Prior knowledge:
Blueprint: H1 4-16, H2 25-49, E1 70-73, E2 80-83
Antiparallel strand pairs: 1-2
Helix pairs in contact: 1-2
Amino acid sequence: MNIERPAISKSIAEARDKGDLSENAEYEAAKEAQACLKMKINKMKEVIINSRIIDGSRIETDRVQIMNRVKIRNTNNNALMDIR
């Protein structure tokens, strides 16, 4: 947000200064980059809002759940798989 947003705004301003916006490919590209960045920022904000911090030391290991490390043994060939 603090690095790419100002850079895109600068690109838009530079492209706008070149004249007719209806035929300005640089302006259209900068506006498209701005829209893509806005979507990316909104998605990242949503991920952060819906996240929660998990204290790994308080996770139970008597059953499989998030943050557990599980080992599975294939009884046919005795192969051991480590699942994270």
